[in-house]
Write a structure and sequence with these properties.
- With 174 residues, this protein is of the alpha+beta class.
- It has one domain: Beta Polymerase, domain 2 (2-Layer Sandwich).
- A hairpin with an 8-residue loop joins strand 3 and strand 4.
- Helix 3 packs across helix 4, helix 3 crosses helix 5 and helix 4 runs antiparallel to helix 5.
- The longest helix has 24 residues.
Length: 174
Amino acid sequence: MDEVVITEYDPHWTILFEQEASRICEVLDRDLITRIEHFGSTAVPGLAAKPVIDLLVEVRSLAQAKQVAVSQLEPLGYVYWFDNPDPQRMFFVKGLPPNGPRTHHIHMIEPDSILWERLIFRDYLCQHPDEAARYAQLKLYLAQRFSSDREAYTRGKAKYIESVMQKARQQTAG
């Protein structure tokens, strides 16, 4: 089973991101990747999170990435989600159950993807520890309520995330 488990913040998560970003750069074609960002809850200092490092990998072309990335990332332990309903990104999981606990997610996108907005959310939480603490409480509650239903856990956060995104966009525009 792929349970939702929230743990206290671990400062080592930043190091795990940097190490994995290096590994990814070593195996993927150098002219494919334009940048890699750490995002999600493990990228926010002090925030309790599922201990899964999310990497936002910008590629010049998803079409090109689809031709080479799957075979290049498999040796690192990544499994590609072929049935992903979102054609604007490629999604990879390292440690997909039953082969172990999830440790990393790769969200591979092009420069114009809407997913870049997730960095606005990350940055807002980094700048507002009180908001990050509220988010942590929601996550803990949802993880307890939906421990065996990742989709319900994610849906439960949606309204809160959108309210924070509105504040973050206003701050960014202001």
